[in-house]
Amino acid sequence: MKPLAIYHEHPDWFKPLFAELEKRGMPYERINPAQHSFDITDTVNRYSLFFNRMSPSAYLRDGA
Questions:
Q1: What confidence tens digit (pLDDT) does each residue in 16-29 have?
Q2: Strands 28-31 and 49-53
Q3: N or C: which end of the chain has fewer CB within 10 A?
Q4: Is this model's pTM higher than 0.85 or not?
């Protein structure tokens, strides 16, 4: 099974989700927005789901 990708702004908001995923043994990867980039030519599916929970105004709070 490919991991879930979780792209999020604030680490504390998703602590319960991460705990539950770990409890269930589900693979997931936390995507760091400060180090993430998107290549539109990349056709490899690395994740079963890419969950985007970034706020459009994240840059106002020093988000990437």
A1: 999 999 999 999 99
A2: unpaired
A3: N
A4: no
